[in-house]
């Protein structure tokens, strides 16, 4: 609707004659004019109260404004990263995995800062388990033109039981060499392999899952952080051993005692040959550290055999290695004992084990046409229990013990056979079981009748020295395999005079080092211990 201004003038003109011809009646005229203006004022106000009516100055009329609908603003979708940006992010992640930014190391090593075992029984926090704490992870690059990829070297060392629950032991006594697993980094920046998926959580943390048993889908949920020099074990320069009750006064016989510990059963095992009866027997003892219960069993045999015993734990079996035969039984000592002879009869051979494989070290006897026989490394066939040659070193070295860290076999000291006076060997060697490389290293002293046990990057080593009356005739030291350094360690015993001691064996159970020593005055075994976390 619109009203022209000329029409408003017409309304006003109606009252103009009245005003001219009725001048005498001023009051009436004024009243009429007042009324007229009031009418017009009310009319104009009524019309202008509609907010949609405006005065159009161009055509001198009042028009109603029609609102146009607002145009919808559509924000453009953000563009995803380009292929080049994705590739750069992948390479940045790979660089984070492999670049060592700490301690000027030649490689970057990750370790587990927290872990949970997930299996059919539920979820268990295994962060504090010693079998988890020694694991190491090393990433290397194998980039190709079409993908960002690499190899993860997992130093598994001692493993865990994948089907463990809250009421069973998580630790496994098997020791494993490193495994190498290929991986790629996908477009989601995941580090993937059929057995694991890992992602970057922070700049210093990698998290994810690792399948440890495909059949049961048991897996580890892990958080990895970079390992620094402070995270490696340090060789102690002094150890004060404490008395360990209720596992003493067992008879020994001249460096022939086997001694090993189990994280799985939290027990100590000891074995030696007893010549006091016929048929001859090997006595085997198991001491439960928690319950302080001592169990034992006997392995009887006939025929000739030298005295040495060596013990190893593989799965739930205790393996007793003698000089001419090997015996197996449950680690509870309550099963039937199986014994298998092998062709060679080895005198005081050393031994070591990895990947469920036992290796025998030396022990060959002198023959007339070769008074200084070479040192042989043999493997014990797990099916036939025959001995198979692995490597031969053309040198005379006898009564020398060894230990394995990852894939490296370390052998310490020894005696040159038929030397008179005794010629003690002041070197050790490292033999890589994967590639066959051989390297020698120096020892602080010449030692023989050696014994050894590993603790992450350390190997504790003891050996016998030439006899000096009223003086300790043993050596004790620690090899750091990470730094290739050897430290001679001063040790003291709480329950026995060091001048009366022959060290028979060393073993570690849950961060505690146990030492079995023979009291040479009565041929009895004494066991002492030290908490390695206190050093």
TrEMBL record:
UniProt keyword annotation of Membrane present: yes
Membrane-crossing residue ranges in chain numbering: 27-46
Keywords assigned: Membrane, Transmembrane, Transmembrane helix
Keyword field contains Transmembrane helix: yes
InterPro entries for the chain: Gal_Oxase/kelch_b-propeller, Kelch-typ_b-propeller
Name assigned to this protein: Kelch motif-containing protein
Organism of this sequence: Maribacter dokdonensis
Lineage of source species: Bacteria, Pseudomonadati, Bacteroidota, Flavobacteriia, Flavobacteriales
């Amino acid at each position: 609707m619109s009203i022209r201004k000329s029409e408003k003038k017409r309304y006003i003109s109606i009252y103009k004659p009245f005003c001219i011809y009725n001048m005498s009646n001023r009051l009436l005229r004024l009243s009429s004019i007042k009324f007229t203006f009031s009418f017009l004022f009310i009319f104009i106000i009524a019309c202008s109260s509609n907010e949609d009516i405006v005065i159009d100055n161009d055509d001198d009329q009042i028009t109603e404004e029609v609102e146009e609908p607002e145009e919808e603003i559509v924000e453009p979708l953000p563009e995803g990263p380009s292929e080049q940006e994705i590739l750069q992010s992948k390479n940045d992640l790979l660089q984070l995995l492999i670049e060592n930014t700490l301690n000027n190391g030649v490689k970057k090593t990750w370790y587990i800062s927290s872990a949970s075992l997930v299996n059919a029984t539920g979820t268990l926090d295994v962060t504090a388990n010693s079998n988890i704490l020694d694991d190491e992870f090393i990433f290397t690059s194998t980039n190709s033109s079409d993908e960002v990829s690499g190899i993860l070297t997992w130093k598994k060392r001692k493993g865990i039981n994948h089907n463990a629950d809250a009421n069973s032991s998580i630790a496994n006594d098997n020791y494993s060499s490193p495994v190498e697993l290929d991986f790629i980094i996908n477009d989601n920046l995941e580090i993937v392999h059929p057995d694991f998926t890992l992602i970057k959580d922070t700049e210093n943390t990698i998290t994810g899952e690792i399948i440890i048993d495909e059949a049961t889908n048991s897996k580890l949920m892990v958080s990895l952080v970079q390992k620094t020099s402070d995270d490696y074990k340090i060789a102690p320069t002094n150890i004060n051993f404490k008395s360990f009750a209720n596992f003493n006064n067992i008879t020994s016989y001249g460096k022939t005692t086997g001694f090993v510990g189990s994280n799985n059963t939290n027990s100590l095992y000891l074995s030696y040959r007893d010549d006091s009866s016929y048929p001859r027997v090997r006595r085997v003892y198991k001491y439960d550290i928690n319950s302080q219960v001592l169990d034992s069993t006997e392995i009887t045999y006939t025929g000739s055999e030298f005295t040495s015993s060596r013990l190893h734990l593989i799965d739930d079996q205790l393996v007793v290695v003698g000089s001419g035969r090997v015996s197996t039984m449950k680690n509870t000592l309550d099963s039937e004992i199986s014994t298998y002879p092998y062709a060679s009869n080895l005198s005081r051979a050393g031994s070591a084990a990895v990947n469920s494989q036992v290796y025998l070290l030396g022990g060959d006897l002198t023959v007339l046409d070769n008074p200084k026989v070479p040192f042989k490394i043999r493997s014990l066939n797990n099916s036939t229990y025959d001995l198979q040659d692995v490597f031969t070193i053309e040198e005379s070295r006898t009564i020398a013990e060894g230990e394995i860290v990852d894939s490296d076999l370390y052998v310490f000291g020894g005696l040159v056979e038929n030397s008179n006076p005794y010629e003690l060997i002041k070197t050790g060697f490292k033999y890589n079981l994967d590639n066959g490389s051989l390297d020698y290293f120096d020892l602080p002293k010449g030692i023989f009748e050696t014994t050894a046990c590993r603790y992450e990057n350390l190997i504790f080593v003891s050996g016998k020295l030439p006899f000096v009356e009223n003086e300790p005739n043993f050596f004790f030291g620690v090899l750091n395999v990470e730094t290739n350094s050897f430290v001679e360690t001063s040790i003291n015993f709480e329950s026995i005079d060091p001048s009366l001691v022959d060290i028979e064996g060393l073993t570690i159970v849950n961060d505690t080092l146990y030492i079995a020593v023979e009291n040479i005055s009565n041929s009895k075994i004494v066991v002492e211990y030290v908490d390695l976390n206190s050093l």
